[in-house]
Every structure is written in structure tokens, then in C-alpha cells.
Amino acid sequence: MNASTNFEVMSQLKAKMFLGDQRGCTETEQFRRYCTFNFENYYNENKSAFGNLAVLNDETLAGGYSAEFTTRDSYYVLLLPVAGSLLCNINDSEISLVHPGQMAFLKILKNNHFVLTNSYKSELINFIQVWVKTDDNARRLKPEQFSFDIEERKNELIQITPQPGISVTASIGMFDGRKKAACFSRNMQSSLFAFVISGVFEVEHRLLHAGDGLALWNGINNIEMEALSNNAILFLLELE
């Protein structure tokens, strides 16, 4: 790609930031939830869903506590434990524990419910919960769990790819300060959402701190990022 073409791609790329300190927050003695987008009782006209990416919550549950959800539409649900292990039940059918270093991928059909439970009696757990809307309201999928080691594969993005035909792909990586990486999209028509779990990053010349999100769309090909702190963790979603 020559310089003029590269400039043209950059000029067409669109972006929107979602700052962590502007997220919606719901908190009780049993749980705390930070919402990047509108969710349940939290609403802000500037925090509507990003395409099919309807939910990106950073959630903390107290020991032994459960949170129950019912979906009005069909969704792919990604569960990423950050600290502590998480138990998920779909329609009262138990699923194995999901631990840090794993991601659970579920499909929840319209008007179904699922329950997320802290498996510890007294310790807090923290996890990322993502919902991606799908128009496939009939096909059931067996829940999947993916394992990864961000410390052993430090300074690279680890792609987590569900079975073929799924409209979302996730990537995660832990980086030392000043280490760079690139994300190559599967489809130029895809959109990308970057979320910083910890540390500081620069993604496409935009500074992101923990809890910040960045939506990118319109001609995505090669997205560049750089960690600006040690042990910084970035979570990426590519949405077709």
C-alpha cells in the first residue's frame, strides 16, 4: 500500500471513544456493575449500542451472590473472568466453572434466562460480560470454553475464535510498556471495539486508560496499538 492509499484509509476510518469514568454504575452490597452501554436501569442518550455489540459490562460479585438475566433478543454472550471463578447456569442447566485464563462463549436465545454466580463464599470476583445481538433466533449452540495464557504469550494478541459462522471474534493480550501489536481484521466491513482491562494503551493514536473503550469502523484493515504501561491488558472484539 502506497502512502496516498494509506492516508485515504486512515481518513475514512471512523472512531468513537467510551470513557471509563463516564460509564454507568450500579452498586449494592452484593455487586457493582460498570456499563459501557445502556443496560437495564442505566440510560444515556450517548451510550447506545455499537451495532450488534449491545452489552459490555465490568462486573464484581460478592461471595456466594448471583445475578440473573433474561434476554429480550438472541445474543452471543462472552464471559471473561478477570479475578476469581464464575459459575453460569442457562435455563437452570449448570455449566462448568469459568476461571481466569478462560473465556466462556454462550448463545442465549430470545426470552431465555441465565444466572451468573460467584463460586466463592466470601471472596469477590470480577469479570467482563459481553452481549452481541444475533438474528439467528432458532439455532442452539453448545456452550464453549476457550483457554489462553496471556503471561506465557506476553506481548502478543491471542485470538479466541468460536466455531465458523459466528459474527464475533475476541482477542486478548498482556503487554510490557512500549510493546506494540497490530490487529488485522477478517473483513474490511467489520467493526472493532477495543477495551482496556488494565493499564494504558494507545490505539490508533488515541490514549486509552483502564475501563476506556474505543469503537472503530468504516474500512478497518490493520489497527495498530502500543502499551504505555507494564502488564497492560487489552481486550478486542471484531464484529462482522
The dominant shape is: globular
The fraction of residues assigned to DSSP E strands is: over 45%
- Compute the average pLDDT: 91
H-E order? HEEEEEEEEEEEEEEEEEEEEE
Strand adjacency order, main sheet: 2-3-4-11-6-9-12
Radius of gyration: 18 Å
Number of strands: 21
| Structural class by helix and strand composition | mainly beta
N- to C-terminal separation?
24 Å
Question: Which bin fits the share of residues in helices?
Answer: under 10%
Low-pLDDT stretches are 1-10
What quaternary form is this?
single chain
- Helical element count? 1
Largest sheet: 7 strands, antiparallel
Q: What does this protein structure show overall?
A:
The chain has one helix at residues 3-12, and strands at 14-18, 24-27, 31-35, 53-61, 66-70, 75-83, 86-90, 93-94, 102-108, 113-118, 125-133, 144-147, 158-160, 168-175, 180-184, 191-198, 200-203, 206-209, 213-217, 222-227, 232-239. Strands 2-3-4-11-6-9-12 form a seven-stranded antiparallel sheet, with no helix packed on it. It is built from one helix and 21 strands. 4% of the residues lie in helices and 50% in strands. The protein has 240 residues and is mainly beta.
